[in-house]
């Protein structure tokens, strides 16, 4: 049974909100009473996801946003505050995966692409969220890193570089903003059963059986399990939790 939270009167922003972990987290925030701004590059998908929530009686806002474009990120955060009046919580989840490559052969365009989304996108999102939270004197931000932010895996150097970078952003911002009433943490998912992981499996870039065996719990995680970790980090139950990179990985990094 999942814990329950009461975020009534609060506002959450989720990037990469049209599917997978982002969608699960947006739904969980809404179910807990929060108004939710859902940002995603896929306009049709995020519109449909937000409509599902509003049709169910929740307050939701669809935002088309490419997190590699700082102006779009700033506009999405501003629109959230203009619509709902404040910003209390954010889950900076938008991310991509790239094919595995030998570190000596990978093209610069792949390195630039994965860092533009997975690192710079988190940086930009956090930057503009902090500006509003700083004015309020309160807030909680969760950045999406990965088990790839905690360990290395052959063939994944560029992806892991970006996810390690997210943890550096998180810890430094956490120290800077803790005295101002804002908590910043990161979540580090293991291999989660999402459309992105399903696509990797379909393309032969990931072996499902091997991925399951690499997690001591012997299965893939679910998007809802990540959502629950994010909600806890944003809740008063985690009020003394600052600057952590929380593994939610079925025991992968504990081996």
From TrEMBL:
Pfam families: adh_short_C2
Enzyme Commission number(s) of this protein: 1.1.1.47
Keyword Ribosomal protein annotated: no
Superkingdom to which the source organism belongs: Bacteria
Signal peptide: none
Family: Belongs to the short-chain dehydrogenases/reductases (SDR) family.
Keyword list, A-Z: Oxidoreductase
Keyword Oxidoreductase listed: yes
One example GO MF annotation: glucose 1-dehydrogenase [NAD(P)+] activity
Protein name: Glucose 1-dehydrogenase
């Amino acid at each position: 049974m999942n814990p329950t939270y009461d975020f009534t009167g609060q506002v959450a922003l989720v990037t990469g909100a049209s599917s997978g972990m982002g969608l699960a987290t947006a739904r969980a925030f809404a179910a807990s009473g929060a108004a939710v701004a859902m940002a995603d590059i896929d306009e049709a998908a995020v519109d449909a996801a937000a409509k599902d929530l509003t049709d169910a009686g929740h307050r939701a806002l669809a935002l088309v946003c490419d997190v590699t474009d700082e102006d779009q990120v700033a506009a999405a955060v501003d629109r959230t505050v203009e619509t709902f009046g404040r910003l209390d919580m954010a889950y900076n989840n938008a991310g991509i995966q790239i094919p595995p490559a030998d570190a000596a052969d990978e093209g610069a365009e792949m390195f630039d692409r994965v860092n533009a989304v997975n690192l710079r996108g988190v940086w930009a999102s956090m930057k503009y969220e902090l500006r509003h939270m700083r004015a309020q004197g309160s807030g909680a931000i969760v950045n999406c890193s990965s088990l790839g932010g905690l360990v290395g895996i052959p063939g994944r150097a560029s992806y892991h570089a970006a996810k390690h970078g997210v943890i550096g952003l998180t810890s430094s911002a956490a120290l800077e903003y803790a005295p101002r009433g804002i908590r910043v943490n990161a979540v580090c998912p293991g291999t989660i059963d999402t459309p992105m992981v399903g696509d990797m499996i379909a393309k032969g870039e990931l072996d499902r059986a091997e991925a399951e065996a690499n997690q001591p719990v012997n299965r893939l995680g679910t998007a809802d399990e990540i959502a629950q970790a994010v909600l806890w980090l944003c809740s008063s139950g985690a009020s003394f939790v600052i600057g952590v990179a929380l593994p939610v990985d079925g025991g992968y990094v504990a081996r």
